[in-house]
Amino acid sequence: MRRKLSQFGTGMGHHTTFPNSHSEANPMAEEFVPRQSELSRTYREGDLIVEIDIYEDDEGGWLLEIIDEDDNSTLWEDAFESEEEALDEALDALSEEGIETFVGPVQETDESG
């Protein structure tokens, strides 16, 4: 299973723009605006709800982010080769780790002891 990169206080989702390789060389070039996958969806377990957000990156892959109702976000580090692979990972993670893992702010853990 791919590991999640980190959790953020605000979801990136389809509102994010990514500079493409051309924009660095040419500031007048358009920024890449990712396309959201039709496989993105709302996921509910009991009273908890998250958004599974799948969107393309600027290199041909698909990014996965799970966002709770308060815009806390968990973003996967690696891009997926397909939209379906990203959705499968999201559903597996929600099933195996529980939706509670993806709801609320990041819980700081003390790994020193």
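^ that was protein a. below is b, sequence first then the tokens
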Amino acid sequence: MATRPPIHIFQNAHYAGDDLVPKFRNGEPWKKVLGPVFIYLNSALTGLDCSVLWKEAKEQICQQQRHDCGAAYVGLALPGDAGSWQRECKGYQFWTKTDSEGYFTVNSVGIGDYNLYAWVYGFIGDYKYDDMITISAGECSCRIHN
């Protein structure tokens, strides 16, 4: 008998507490598709010291961190305070990375009202653009000037 994948794990409070569990009003429609998801797996031959797996996993994260160095992450998420995107779990978020000059394009954004947020790996705190950004049907670009 085939087993169903544990999709529910993306919507529970096991690690983060009740703040990250979506709250729904009676009759409120909601659906959300999650993915893509990347899971890094490694394995060791029988009899091999398993600490090799830990070392390899740490090397993998170091490679990822070097790759992310210097770029800011910029995203559109539901309106809220600076940092609220970290706890927001009902709506979609659309993220990208800046180029070396700080320019960015966020693709395939759904219709709606958003705040623009940004953060840089290794720095404490994040940024929120003060103006609301509204994406309408058929809109293909939005220029933001500082």
